[in-house]
Structure prediction request, 40 residues.
Amino acid sequence: MKSAAALDCRNIALAHWTASDGRLDLEELLDEAFAALSAR
Prediction:
């Protein structure tokens, strides 16, 4: 389950990064995604 959640975080971060045409920082997006997961 943890690996599936990690992949979901990565996919969401990549989707946001792609939608921004690379303007957003991918590392920050990944950090935000994992922080949101950890908050649960």
Notes: The chain is about 80% helix and 0% strand.
